[in-house]
Prior knowledge:
Elements lengths: L3 H24 L7 E4 L19 H8 L7 E5 L3 E3 L2 E3 L9 E6 L6 E3 L1 E3 L4 E4 L2 E5 L9 E3 L2 E3 L3 E2 L5 E2 L2 E3 L3 E3 L13 E7 L2 E11 L2 E5 L15 E5 L11 E4 L4 E5 L10 E4 L5 E3 L6 E4 L2 E5 L4 E3 L12 E3 L2 E5 L4 E3 L2 E2 L2 E3 L2 E5 L2 E9 L1 E4 L2 E5 L13 E7 L2 E4 L2 E5 L4 E5 L6 E4 L2 E5 L6 E6 L7 E4 L2 E5 L13 E6 L6 E4 L2 E3 L4 E6 L4 E4 L2 E3 L3 E7 L8 E4 L2 E3 L6 E7 L8 E4 L2 E3 L8 E5 L3 E5 L1 H8 L18 E6 L5 E4 L4 E3 L4 E2 L2 E4 L3 E7 L8 H6 L3 E4 L6 E6 L6 E7 L4 E7 L2 E5 L6 E9 L2 E9 L1
Parallel strand pairs: 1-2, 2-5, 3-6, 4-23, 5-24, 6-25, 23-26, 24-27, 25-28, 26-29, 27-31, 28-32, 29-33, 30-33, 31-34, 32-35, 33-36, 34-37, 35-38, 36-39, 37-40, 38-41, 39-42, 40-43, 41-44, 42-45, 43-46, 44-47, 45-48, 46-49, 47-50, 48-51, 49-52, 50-53, 51-54, 52-55, 53-56, 54-57
Antiparallel strand pairs: 7-22, 8-9, 9-21, 10-11, 10-22, 12-19, 13-19, 14-15, 15-18, 16-17, 16-19, 17-18, 20-21, 57-58, 59-64, 60-63, 61-62, 61-64, 65-66, 66-69, 67-68, 67-70, 70-71
Bound molecules: calcium ion (2 copies).
The site of one calcium ion has 8 residues, from strand 12.
Amino acid sequence: MSTGKSYMAYGYFFSVVFWSIIFMVTASPHLFAANYYISAAGNDANSGLSPVAAWQTISNVNAHFSSFVPGDSVLFKRGDSFYGTLTINRSGTNGKPITISAYGTGAKPVITGFTTISGWTNEGGGIYSKVITSQALTNLVTIDGKQVGMGRYPDTGFLTYESFSANTSITDTELGNTPIWTGADLAIRKNDWTLDRGTITNHTGTTLNYNCANTGSTQTPASGGFGYFILNDLKTLTTYGEWYHNPGNGKFYMYFGAVDPLSKVVQVATINDLIFSTGGYDYITLDNLNLTGSINNAVFFKRVISTDINDYCKIQNCDISFCGKNGIELGQGASFIVEGTTINNCNSYGIYSYYASLFTIANNAISNIAVIPGQSIYSQGNGGLYFSCNNGVINYNKIKNTGYNGIFIRPGTLGTSINISYNYIDSVCLVLNDGGAIYTGSDWIGIRTIDHNIITNAIGNGSGAIRQTSLSEGIYLDEYASHLVVTNNTVANSGNSGIKLHKAHDNTITDNTTFNCQRGIDYLNSSGSNIRNISLRRNAFFAKSAKQYASVFSSVADDIALFGTADSNYYARPLDDNLTFSVTQPLTGWQQKTLATWQTFTNQDVHSRKSPVAVTDVSDIRFEFNATKAVKTIPLDSKYICLDGKIVEGSITLQPYCSVIIMKYSIPSAISSFTNTNQKFVKVFPNPVNNELMIELKDNNGKTGFEMVNSSGRSILKGSFIEKTVVNVSNFSSGIYFLKIEQGRSFEVKKIIKI
Length: 755
Ligand SMILES: [Ca+2]
Ligand SMILES: [Ca+2]
């Protein structure tokens, strides 16, 4: 970058003149905690000990860092911006962390790795270039503050390879001899959940040889027929904003076409990591910083060896954005805390950690993670949070727009308690398939609790895959997932299922609601490992469309009835509340079942129910959720009925992280379908009534329920009869009541006046 040289010379000049002063400071470590101030208008020759004697540069902070003592604070001036990597190589202690924070007023101080490009060279053909100084090949570029992906061919979508050889070559019969793509990169979809990156080592005819040394992936494609595209090559620059960085000559190229490059602000990340702990330093706090523009991570606590851990590190109230790899990467550490922090526009993960324990991830907002296909340096995964962990809490986070999973939890070596609760996750699996908003697998020793999360729009993306349709789940307990308690969650609008169990065992699924998912609950035993000991109780699986299933059960063995226990669930599809179960097993093949035939088939779900009412107009179905910490009141435009039959009107209140499904409840003014379909006639008299109300249903031979509801929708009295009954209403206060007479799915409502 152009300012780099003068900056270096300046630093060198002062370092010669003032080195002895600095030496005195560093040579006699101070005993008491101090604040060090850094301002863009400061001077590295200053003491740094007050705002008027502020230092100026990150490199000067780095020069002093190893002499900091526990309790020291490094304070960057608000409103100012600093370029470079702050390197941590010193620990704080319990109660005396080393803190990197802000002073003054205004916007958070910015630590940036961005170089703003000026002085473009016109290369012709709409392409402009600039030699830049960068620590590595960049992986993050913005135009006017908006991220743009690396140049690619084709510009959108995928080419298709018909065949492959191991993890070394693909053959695409449509691929021509020219241009020669040797040296370019390959983004290769190997299966539903993997978009790998490789380097093309040879292009001959229709075959591309490649290696995935950079991602380290050894995965071979699942089959021919998946997609790929080419990137990281100057020849791919054909549409506005596409870029290529040639690390060999340092040239950065961008395609502008007819657009004037001077009219655009182009920023290129040229620093690997912005806050970098070399590994094994404890009690570090990052507070109120704006970290933006890294080739790799904004914050990187490196794991050097298994014992070299980063304990008690804390990141709070920071804004992290535009990271070529992860927002935060924690190699290993205990008692790791990230709170009140925003993380946006990262190519791999918002927060990525392996070997984390006793961590807390709370009240963060994480969005636009790994949404540019092929831009991640990981072969798979890529999403909001990734934790390979032992103990931890993930709550009150908002995660929105992720390429793959929202939250991906893997058990650590101990596998003790993990609590994922009160998170709001929206729009996941925007690039890949076969993932979920909350995804986990593997046997687990402790308990994983997934509680009170709100999940919407697990979309799923099949482009470049053979299966083009969505395979995206709200809560996904994948292979061997065990000892999970999934409770009080809401999942709406999943491309595939609300809750999916794939070869999972020993799990408890209670009090969850799924709405408008292709499959409400989905059990899949795809191979030998059986699903067992699943307790499924008090959930509501609500299919909004007649094309959706409330539940889907598939097994390669005839063991569906052995999957576990189930009861007191709602399997509701009010538009067509009949064959709401899809059941597939070898013995009987694929069958659709009603709740009744499902009950007979499994001997489960004895007290489970369908929708209390039928719905003909889908707009009469209303789904509301509350993904905030405050109680929410929702005004109602009419009377509605809840799944449990309760009538609500005026308004309803929703507790935090809860949801409700209600259906418009119009009281029929005349005789309902009951009379029409059953050719029966209900007689209710006298009306108006004073003491005793007679209800008669001639030639009736089945048990028929009745319910008296007052004018505000409250149920007053319930009972049943066969041909006739007498209801004593003498204690009722005067007014209007509704008498609902119900047999199976048919019902009739009569208006009764009590005098
Ligand atoms: Ca092809
Ligand atoms: Ca292109």
